[in-house]
Every structure is written in structure tokens, then in C-alpha cells.
Amino acid sequence: MRELTLSSVIAVLLGLFAGAQSNPPRTRIDVSKLGPQVGTRVPDFNLADQNGKRWTLQSITGPKGAMLVFFRSADW
């Protein structure tokens, strides 16, 4: 069985760190450009909620408009 020394552990860690640095840079996604923007009129829709009740844009719009929030659950 080979004995691990502090210098061998440091050498392994430095090798792992150097390998992680060689990955190509990731392309950043500008999330402000995704989906409808603030103030943009969305197309009319007719969708069922988790209880099967149907909702349209007209049914959720109040005197000041509507705010749509999309939430992706963990079990999709």
C-alpha cells in the first residue's frame, strides 16, 4: 500500500485544478432576452391549471393588466 504524503496530495489537487482550468469558456446566456419582455403583449391563450380549470388571458387580466409567472417544478 502506497503512503500518501502531503506533497503527493498537493500535486494531485494541483493537477485537478489545472485540468478544470483547461475547459473551454462557457457562452453566457442573456436571460433578459428570453421570453416575452416587460410590457410586451402576449398572445391569447387557453390553458388548464393543476386542477383542470381553464384560464384565458382575458380571465386573468384585471384593470391594471396581468402578470404571468412561469415556474418550472423540480419533477418535470
How would you characterize the overall build of this protein?
The protein has helices spanning 6-21, 57-60; strands at 46-48, 54-56. With 76 residues, the chain is an alpha+beta fold. The chain has a domain at 38-76. It is elongated and about 70 Å long. The two termini are 47 Å apart.
Write the layout of secondary structure elements.
Blueprint: H1 6-21, E1 46-48, E2 54-56, H2 57-60
Antiparallel strand pairs: 1-2
Write a short abstract of this structure.
This protein has a domain at 38-76.
Rg, nearest Å: 26 Å
- List SSEs in N-to-C order: HEEH
Output mean pLDDT.
Answer: 79
Q: Report the structural category.
A: alpha+beta
- By DSSP (H or I, 4+ residues per run), the number of helices equals 2
Shape: elongated
Widest beta sheet: strand line-up: 1-2
Amino- and carboxy-terminal Cα gap: 47 Å
Strand percentage: 5-15%
Features:
2 helices; two-stranded antiparallel sheet; alpha+beta; 76 residues
